[in-house]
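Section 3.1 - Work completed
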Amino acid sequence: MAALGPEDDLFPIQVLIDELRNDEEQRNEDVQLRLNSIKRLSTISLALGDERTRAELLPFIGDMMDDEDEVLCALAEQLGCFIPLVGGREHAHCLLPPLENLATVEETVVRDKAVEALRTVGSEHTAGDMESHFVPMLRRLVQGDWFTARSSACGLFKPAYEVTEQAAIRGELCTMFRGLCGDDTPMVRRAAAGRVGELGPVLESTHLRSEIIPVWTTLSSDEQDSVRVLAVDSCGVFAGLLSKEETEECVMPIVRDAGRDKSWRVRLAAADNYSSLVSAVSPELVKGELVSLYATLLKDPEAEVRTAACKRLRRFCEQLPEDFREEAIMTDILPCVQTLVNDANQNVKIALAGDLMSLAVILGKDRTIEHLLPLFLSQLKDEVSEVRLNIVKNLDSVAKVIGAPQLTQSILPTVLELAEDTKWRVRLAIIEYMPLLAQCLGPEVFSEKFNGLCMNWLVDNVYAIRAAAATNLRRLVETFGKDWAQASILPKVLAMARDPNYLHRLTTLFSVNMLAEAVGADLVQSTVLSVIVQLASDSVANVRFNVARTLGRLAAILDKDHRGVVTSEIKPVLERLNQDTDPDVKFFATEALVAVSG
């Protein structure tokens, strides 16, 4: 155990009482002080030892439930980690009373933290303690007069069922949970619907089929749409636990009803879950029904539902059985997609642009060129910048299917437009696409079409674009070689060293840092170094200290084959900068000198 300071060692329980005092006469109004004290509970417990923690500290904690929600939330979180401090799992049940009280308070956040802590503590119970302490507590919560207790109880059945070994108690737990699923209070039914899916995988087969599936079916048709939403979210779980025949009998009716539900929130939940159902039902049912149900959601009148369906487009299509995957996409899904490309809601188009290009891998080269490429080009010209951005980010996946030359030929005019897009994130995505474009076009065509753009990006108003442009130049040099760099890039980069705008002079330094290794020591020595040395006399301190950093990097590149240049040209400049009046310049010059001398 770590050594304790005097404040922790002397009268620890009294210190805690003073700081947490919350009675009418001596209330400590400083919530932050009480929060800090709660976070020190483990230190107090260590000072007391596990026996006194159980006998003194926990009863005191149990009496302090009338406090701010923020304090109670922190208390629940601390108690969830208290098992080692009360003497291990054989005494874990001592933590149940204060957590039970916290699980019944009105504030939802506090109850959720208490339930989370109870689940942690409950999973550490022995089977005997579970049956003699945890399950009785669960019974009290289930029978609570106020809905808060019953709502919290819904989250505790999983650890109780997993740990207990008696068949009778397991049966009782299922009966209690079934009762909560039919509770008169919607909040309790909603809590039960949110937990029914996690129970499925831990239940015995008989309990799953006789107790839980029937109440789940009832919850899925509840009058409250918030209950139905949570019940529909469990479709994938139960489809994975039941046989295909049982899934078609028990799960598919819920799926069908959810797709036609009057509440758009329920239909949205259906859209989120359809992809997980594909592998759980028979291919005949997928082909005959599930594909058309999904296509219906792509045409839903509510934009939120269409957005959710578009976000699952790739996953749904990938899950379809291979023998009719392409046919299903071409017949049922692609017509919907062609309409959604021009959807009135921008969120729908953004979601579609994020997943649409993945269909190219499934449909292959010919169908992609004929059917998908026009859609890509349309979205590349969309007025919403996020749509254009999502398409540009995924151009690589299409290039792998139809070939980079074919793609480049098709989208080159659009790329040239997007390269000067008003949204900097779109320009950034185009910059990242440049190396792939360079491989397709070759040095001559690329230089003709894009060299000017690449240089313009170096003086962009947005720093992220300037930084990305410098990185892009290095990747282009790696693609086209040193000769191309010497002829097409270096003269323009080094010319910016004479620009009146100091930011452009800084860009020269950033670019040289990126390019130096790619162009090699010979070009650095013959072409680059003299320009950098001249910038050492710049009037702007930011430029001078970046010169010091750049010279340090160039020295490392020249050191092997041009050591004399380092000694005769770089080191004197760094020594001069080391005498600069600006402290930042001196700092970086000193740092570079140490590297050079070392």
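Second construct:
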Amino acid sequence: VSSRKRKHEDDKDEDSGLGSYSGGGSGGGVATSSTTTIHRMPSECESAASGGGGAAGGSVRIPGSPNSLSDHEYLDATSDPGSGSQSPIVSINPDQLEIRHHKPLSYRSIVTDVFDGKLVSSLKCLSCDRVSKTTETFQDLSLSIPTQEALSSLSERPGSLLADGSDGWISWMWKWFSSWFYGPDVTLQDCLAFFFSEDELKGDNMYSCEKCKKLRNGLKYSKVTQLPDTLCIHLKRFRHDFAFSSKISTKVTFPLTGLDLGPWVHKDCVSDQVLYDLIGVICHHGTAGGGHYTSYSYNSTNGNWYHFDDSIVSEVDPSTVANAEAYVLFYRKNGSHLDDVRKEVALALRETNQSLVKYFITWPWWVKFNDMSEPGQIDNSSVVCRHGGVLPRRINSAHNLCLPITPSAWRILHERFGNSAGALTNFKPCKTCIHAVRMEERQKQFERAEFQLLREQELASQEESSGDTFLVVRSWYTAWEEWVMGRAREPPGPINNRNLYTQRGNSYLLRPNVDRLTFNEDIWTFFLSLYSGGPEVVVRPGSGGIKVSTPRLVRIQSIAARLQARCRETMRLSECSNHTNQE
């Protein structure tokens, strides 16, 4: 187990105890935040589909449209604006195909709303003073329990937040005496200070400086840029050394109220509230080889603490909780500053004055307002699209997903929290989004029919053909098939075939046990012209070897023109059919 106090960018898989630490960077491969792909629909079809307020960039699928994954249960997926330069992998005449910038999805749920926080890790080179920063998302802070030697060393550093030991000789004697019976006295603030302290990288732990182009000594330190509503703190009580495991039974004292994270927040932190109150504790009884879990939970309704031991529940005194050997601690932001606003809104909801305009608030944001310390701006996006109309899939359920409120209640909420999208006063469907849904369905039908035609041609000429075969990783094809068959809401990103092969010198070898499909050149170019990506992995007949190369532009242009012609003909036949039915 590494002796470093926190995770570095290159060891995201280090055990965090609860396994919920996620980095901010994207994985390797083709589908990155700056990946650009060719639009899935030929341009003539798109121009017909984009008629009143289409998506930016000519895209049929628009962020915040019915194709997003948000609903009243907080199960959302929204497009992250992303950053960095966006240049297409393949340059194609815009008159033939539209260029579409793929952006990573940021999945959101009630769990992320409650537990997600962000911190920025800074890495400073001691040679050139260059500072690189990485933003990471966390759902728990996994804290090591520092030794007395580590705390003494940390307290000697300039600007240390630890006690300087100037409490007097009587206090020092008591701590020294009690440590013989109860172990060293470590506080939760000590663990936090140790976690957020500067970590010197030297010796075998030197890092590669991008400016110096060499291994250099450095300093790493972290600050919180966004505090979660509920903070989960995991204390590392288990040590694993080679084949031996042991439990750290050091007593860690923790406050029941008023845990202050202010000393460790970044100057640009978006969270205003930094005080937390304890709401739950998980304890482990036993050794590293086995044991039993119990918990304490705070009931905010009656203000009492309860102990849970399997099916046995009993009320306990707060002092019992404070003396527990904690393994996991749950702290919740102090939301008392909103009590007056909540009371004012509750009184406003009782008003009986009639109004010609009805106001509505979606239940997800209403729950945040009542239960969270910082609910943020009024958000009705689980029902309303970015155009201000009701999402097509919410037309029949919008009334059940919203709470009617009085005009005075809306005024109070709007003045306190704001709302960039305006008030929700009706449930009028969004015509733009309805049109986008219809065009996306036509998009799926087009891709499905084109693939089936190309596949039939491939199977018919399979006995005669002795040409190259093109490989596609099955996971990407499955994602595409799920989308065109209507079983998935999101289309696949760019093709990523990098896991299909390994490179040894100038030659390439297929990876064993990687599931893949083989297609002819027409089908491969069909996928490539719509989704971009790569690389092109070709199996040579007879030789058994593979060739890896960049997709060929001329072939893509050729099949793109053919797709446009077929799409044009399909639309013409569809219009003729509709005209005939109307007559």
